[in-house]
Design a protein that fits this description.
Length: 382
Amino acid sequence: MTPHEPPIDRRGTSSEKWEKYAGRDILPLWVADMDLPTAPFVLNAVRKRLEHPILGYTAPPNRMVEAFTAWLGERYGWRVDEDWLVWIPGVVTGFNVAARAAAIEGDDLVVPAPVYGPILKVPANVGLRGVISPLVLNGGRWEMDLDDLAAKVSPATAAVLFCNPQNPTGRVYDRDELEALAELVLRNKTIVISDEIHCPIVLDPTKQHVPIAGLDRSIEARSISLFAPTKAFNFPGLNAAVAVIPDPCLREAYESVGTGLISTYTPLAFAALTAAFEDDTDWLDEQNAFLAGNARRLETAVAGIDGIRTTRVEGTYLAWLDVSSLGLADAVAAFEDHGLGLHAGEEFGGPGFLRFNFGCPRSILAQAIDRLVEAAGVLGKL
Ligand SMILES: Cc1ncc(COP(=O)(O)O)c(C=O)c1O
């Protein structure tokens, strides 16, 4: 039996993803939210917390803090101190506050892109100059252009805003790529703000996620790393994340910038985080195997479509489709007309591209692939 069939009906839950196309025959494959169930042990933990009749203000539970530090240590070999952790209501909040803290020390923010849209907006949000370093396609994989980065990262750089595993290209950066970036950060005495929200979702068995701050003690001291299990265990709606800030001065700057602006955490988010970090079942491996099956099906299908190209997804449940050769003025609208709701490449700094969220049951993916084939056939003839 194929898992996750029949698909779960999300109507009536005010799902942002589904409401966008309510009443229209358009498959919503845009925002990074999966149509797969939240991990059952996460749901159980939330239910259990609801058995208590009071949902009061809640401090970070020791059990969660211990589970998270053990999680980083066991999965990634990075030993962190409990004092380095700042619990936050989301990774987007985390990198905006981090950039404001970094802004005290510099003029510009260097951003390898295309990248998750809200990261691109950070320089304007915090009043710094945004300096884009375009990723390059090399032998079928997206890479940072280290020469370009070396020319752009300078002592005036407040921070490098970084995303790994990379949204939207699906890259899981190798250790040597991370070492090269870390070396640039250290040489210029700047910091790296690293969004690692997708780190549990590695689909290529030859790949291993490496937290950049865990490379060694020197880059650790110049880092703010942001984690959340909300993508992998599928509870993005609970707004929960954690910043790891080893350097005490940087942590103090971060905390003072956030004072009075960041709401307190919810007990339900803490229950969910604890359950996710404590998970010692095969659930995540099985889900990653399922997602890898989806990735390979999509890649194989796209390889047979004239006018669309893509690259191998190593991590995340997002594929980055190059539709530039179709020459569409409005690619999103053109694919919506064929029943596909994809995410505009422009939002990630990649015009001519569309992002495809394949975190869905196989039957939805199969339907989406049929529509993609049909759409490319029609649009390619215009
Ligand atoms: C790379 C990346 N960072 C952050 C987020 C959002 O994180 P949060 O909901 O914790 O703010 C997303 C969601 O799509 C994402 O893909």
